[in-house]
Amino acid sequence: MPNAAYRHFASRQDLLQAVRAAALAALAQAIETELAALDVAAPPADFARASLRAVGTGYMQFALAEPGLFRTAFSVPDELEGVPVPDKAGDSGLNPYQLLGAALDRMVAAGVLSAAHRPGAEYLAWSAVHGLSMLVIDGPLRMVATSPGQAHEIGRRLLDMVEKGLQAAGDPPG
User: Fold this and answer.
1) Model pLDDT for residues 64-123, shown as the tens digit of each residue
2) Which residues of 33-60 are buried (b: 16+ CB within 10 A; e: fewer)?
3) Could you give the domains of the chain?
4) d(CA 57, CA 115)
5) Got the DSSP string for 68-92?
6) What are the helix and strand counts (H, E) for the chain?
């Protein structure tokens, strides 16, 4: 019965939102898996940097492993701000955007990222990692998806760039 799922939702949009929420929760769980592998005994600055990398790595690995769910997670416009929706969260209760925010907050607390550079840093980091993910799964970098080593290396270099760029954001040139 192709229409069976529709019986459980008031509209096609409600069905899509439910699937989207499940996809975002799966993405959050992939990020949480990377975060759980970190050494919590590491010095705070190292742990903070590793947290940002873990968020980016989990995000990109999810995109490569689950491209259909990844596309679905971002198929409908959504509000970033406001009351968190538990259906879009991982086991921590945080959604992917909040996990990124928490990693950036750790960087500020550890003195790795200036508090002056913190506002809006989510948008910069997210757009870079999301952009690469989309280019690899649906764009001209599709061939990278067939080489996990190459995908990992490009992702690592992007995360280096994001970290350094966030730390330098707002610094005067020269």
Assistant:
1) 999 999 999 988 777 666 667 888 899 999 999 999 999 999 999 999 999 999 999 999
2) bbbeeeeeeeeeeebbbbbbbbbbbbbb
3) 10-168 (1.10.357.10)
4) 24
5) HHHHHHTSS---SSSS--GGG--TT
6) 7, 0
